[in-house]
Amino acid sequence: MSWKIGIIGGSGLYAIDGLEDARWVSVESPWGEPSDAILTGRIAGIDVCFLPRHGRGHRIPPHQLNVRANIDALKRLGCTDVLAVSAVGSLNAAMTPGDFVVVDQFVDRTKGRPSTFFETGLVAHVPMADPVCPRLSALAADAVAAVGGTVHRGATYLAMEGPAFSTRAESRLHQSWGCDLVGMTAMPEAKLAREAELPYALVAMVTDFDCWHDGADVDVTNILAVMHGNAALARAMIVRLCASLPESRAPSAIDTLLDTAIMTAPDARDPAMLAKNSAILQRWLTKGRTG
Questions:
Q1: For the ranges 192-196, 207-211, 266-270, which has the lowest average pLDDT?
Q2: Could you tell me how far CA 44 lies from the centroid of its own chain?
Q3: How confident is the model at residue 287 (pLDDT cuts 50, 70, 90)?
Q4: Domain around 166
Q5: Whole-angstrom Cα distance, residue 233 to residue 185?
Q6: DSSP strand E in the chain: where?
Q7: Whole-number Å distance between alpha carbons of 108 and 161
Q8: In a domain? residue 2
Q9: pTM of the model
Q10: CB of 102 closer than 8 Å to CB of 202
Q11: Does some domain include residue 68?
Q12: Which phi and psi (to 5°) does residue 178 adopt?
């Protein structure tokens, strides 16, 4: 099987380097409008699809992202895996501004965001105990190190609603829970990627220390300065990752997750929901699942 990597670029990452045959493609989704058109092309012989999470020009705030449409669009383009890049605040003194962190766990504290493709008429429960793809995460961490970035392997990311930053009490509470990072976009993104049978990895770029220690506050000007400094390394990481991928993509257990996740009996499944989910269910429907 060939690789096709979907790349979701967050704050500070609005473009990628070394893209051959680059073109912007608009994708229609039954879930609404994705954040932007998707930049397709090849890096080191690997097909990639780049989606600026907040839209070009950073137009869309985190709480208004149409994440279902974003993931659905990447699935419709045939992506096999998703690499997300996000700016985060640090709750861990060892993870300093300018560092990269490859996340392996999440705490979801968002609210009011649609977080599933499965609604009345088609119920599914996907496992999220280990919410990222270990293979893609390891390759991404290796790529950061190879281009000279400081990388931490493994961290817990707390997803908050935003768009305001944390109060100092909230920041200290999140730290007391054992969370290492705080951000506003990884959830429900990781959950929806899992439902779409897309192995997902998140490379977080630390921009600040949030506000958990005395005298500190989050300042957008400082955040932007760190993001701009990290952007070149992030783009180099993506190029290195693509160049390091094995020639053939071995199957992942995530590729067939829906085989044991869908609960609704065949005669109770809503045809409209099946149609709306035609992209994420394509493999499952092609197999003619009836159980």
A1: 207-211
A2: 22
A3: confident
A4: 82-286
A5: 21
A6: 4-9, 20-25, 38-43, 46-52, 81-90, 100-102, 105-109, 151-153, 156-160, 181-183, 200-208
A7: 9
A8: no
A9: 0.94
A10: yes
A11: no
A12: 90, 10
